[in-house]
């Protein structure tokens, strides 16, 4: 993740590289001035050869500075994209937290001791309440491909044994560029266990759900990372 320390370290490195290029330019200019004074150029002007030499050295210094400025620009773009991704991740996870806190089987057509119907490392299914109608709805959160998806539909008459997409009326991509290998759900039980998946008979033990989302990055960039936990039905 692009923490404050990482950004400051990168800024200091780029500042040092830019300073080095500028200092080399100053040294080159001083040397040319000394050579000109030794040859008495100040009294008779600068000859064509010396002018071409100074121009060539200036071009070399400029070319050596280009990679530095390219790295500065690339680092700025990467940091900006990561910041935007982290803001989007906070919005998506806040919605997930709300679904978890509102989770309940009150009003559901079936009797069950927990609103959590499925708990896996990449997928959770629960019964929660619709904010507008206050009716029970079936909600699924899933990390699939490089996206965090939210689906919802009417609460079924009986507890499903499988959860095909045909159960849901609506499907939305809440967050993109999600690294599936570094992202997922964990489930904290009343006895303190921290599990990545649970069997159906153990779903009633879940007290909190921990979600971790990490950003897909390229070229060894530092990824954005967000981790939150919310109590189930509280």
Strand order of the largest sheet: 1-2-3-4-5
Number of helices, counting only DSSP H or I runs of 4 residues or more: 3
Order of secondary-structure elements:
HHHEEEEEEEEE
Name the average pLDDT. 80
What is the tally of beta strands? 9
Alpha-carbon distance between the termini? Answer: 30 Å
Name the beta content range. Answer: 25-35%
Low-confidence stretches: none
Portion of residues within helices: 25-40%
Features:
234 residues, alpha+beta, five-stranded antiparallel beta sheet, four-stranded antiparallel beta sheet, 3 helices, rod-shaped
Plain-language structure description:
This protein is α+β, with helices and mostly antiparallel strands. It has one domain (1-234). 40% of the residues lie in helices and 25% in strands. It has a five-stranded antiparallel β-sheet, with helices on one face. Strands 7-6-8-9 form a four-stranded antiparallel β-sheet, covered by helices on one side. A hairpin with a 4-residue loop joins strand 6 (184-189) and strand 7 (194-195). The relative contact order is 0.13. The model has no long low-confidence stretch (mean pLDDT 80).
């Amino acid at each position: 993740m692009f923490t404050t320390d990482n950004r400051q370290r990168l800024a200091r490195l780029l500042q040092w590289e830019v300073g080095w290029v500028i200092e080399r330019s100053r040294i080159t200019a001083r040397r040319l001035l000394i050579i000109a004074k030794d040859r008495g150029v100040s009294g008779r002007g600068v000859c064509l050869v010396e002018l071409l030499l100074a121009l060539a050295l200036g071009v070399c210094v400029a070319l050596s500075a280009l990679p530095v400025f390219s790295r500065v620009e690339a680092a700025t773009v990467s940091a900006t994209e990561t910041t935007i991704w982290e803001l989007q991740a906070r919005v998506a996870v806040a919605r997930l937290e709300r679904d978890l806190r509102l989770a309940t089987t009150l009003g559901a057509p079936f009797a069950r001791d927990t609103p959590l119907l499925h708990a896996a490392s990449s997928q959770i299914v629960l019964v929660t309440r619709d904010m507008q109608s206050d009716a029970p709805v079936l909600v699924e959160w899933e990390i699939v491909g490089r996206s965090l998806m939210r689906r919802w539909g009417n609460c079924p008459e009986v507890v499903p044994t499988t959860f095909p997409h045909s159960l849901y009326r609506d499907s939305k991509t809440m967050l993109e560029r999600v690294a599936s290998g570094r992202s997922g759900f964990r489930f904290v039980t009343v006895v303190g266990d921290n599990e990545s998946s649970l069997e159906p008979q153990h779903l009633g033990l879940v007290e909190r759900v921990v979600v971790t989302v990490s950003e897909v990055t390229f070229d060894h960039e530092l990824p954005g990372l967000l981790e939150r936990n919310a109590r189930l039905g509280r």
